[in-house]
Structure formats: structure tokens, C-alpha cells
Amino acid sequence: MELRVENGRIVYPFSVGFNSANGELDDFDTHIERYLSKLINVFADADAAWQYLRDNGDKLIYEVYEKNIPEVDGEIRFCSSITYPGKIGDEYFMTKGHFHSRPDTAELYYCIRGKGCMLMEKKDGRYVLEQMYPGRAVYVPGHYAHRSINIGDEPLISLPVYPGNAGHDYGTIEDSGFKHLVVDRNGKPTVIENPEYGRM
Ligand code: PA5
Ligand code: NI
Asked: Whose CA is nearest to atom 9 of ligand 1?
């Protein structure tokens, strides 16, 4: 269904189908695909990322389907976020992660499929890790950078919902990374300090 927007606001109710098997949103307006070749520096072990590319070719790490809800105060934006299973070295596939451009805005992720965790980290390095699995919602308060991480063996599908005016600040994480990583240690997801923190 077409969104009815007047003067930059949604003016007519709508509903949308959400495919819980593959995460596709019906009638999406935007589809973002993030491939490993563009995410080399997102992973702490860049050498392992290059090796993965040499061995397997390029790989879709995650994708997002969105409706073009106006990015203004009062609207609510939502999307479908799908992160595929896999690892670069011992680090699980994950999203780039970001702060919100309006840092005090919060977000709610409702998990539909898969097994994962949400790493939430403040600028001072304090972090919280919450589990993501079907039927569980994670509340990300303002001022926390957030990244979803697939620790399972099927797609991790969630529905993030956030204020229209939140915006995405990717630059801070691109510059210094997260202070913490979630890696596989003997088959168990484990939080470690990022040896590359501040040197991304
Ligand atoms: O707004 C959000 O937090 C999500 O919709 C994310 O944008 C989505 O999960 C993709 O992650 P990222 O924006 O970090 O690439
Ligand atoms: Ni967000």
C-alpha cells in the first residue's frame, strides 16, 4: 500500500505484511543490503574478513526492508532487520551498529526469528548484552549504540521501531568501533574487549 503523506506527515492509516520466515516486508519502499566487501572494517579481524572473501566470494551479511515513514518528530519508523548466520574469524555476523543522531531517542526491537543478542554500549564503554529470540523484545534506551548479532544458525529477524526523528549516526562507530565484541569461545558467545577499539 502507498503511504499517504501530506506536508511531510502520514495522513492515512495503513497496515503491512511481515513475512516471519524470511523477514520480507510487503510493499517495502527501501531495501538495504550490506555485503561483507563493504563491511571489512566492521569486523575486528580484517585479515579474517579478507580471507573469507577470498575463500567464499562476497557474502550478504544483513539486510533491511523499510517503509519510507517521514523522519520527523511524532512519526514512528519501523523496518525489518535480517542478519544472516556466520562468523568472520571468531566474531559472529552482525550489523554495523550506530548511535542515533538524536542521541536521546530510544528504540524497541521485537525478535521474530533466530537466535541472537543485542550489544548496547555507551560512549564511556559501559555495555549491556540482551538476548534476542522469537517472542522477546529488547528496549534500547537513548545514548546507547546498538548492534544486533546472530549467534545462531538461521537468520536473525527482528522488527525495530524508533522515533521518526531519531536518525542514524554511523560515524562514531565507524571511527572507533564498539569497545566490546561478541565472539565464539568454544562454542559459547563471549564478550571480550575489542583489541582494535579506537583504531578502526
Ligand atoms: O534503526 C535501527 O537500529 C535498525 O533499524 C538498524 O538500522 C538495522 O538493524 C540495521 O543496522 P545498522 O543500521 O546498524 O546497519
Ligand atoms: Ni537504531
From this structure: 81
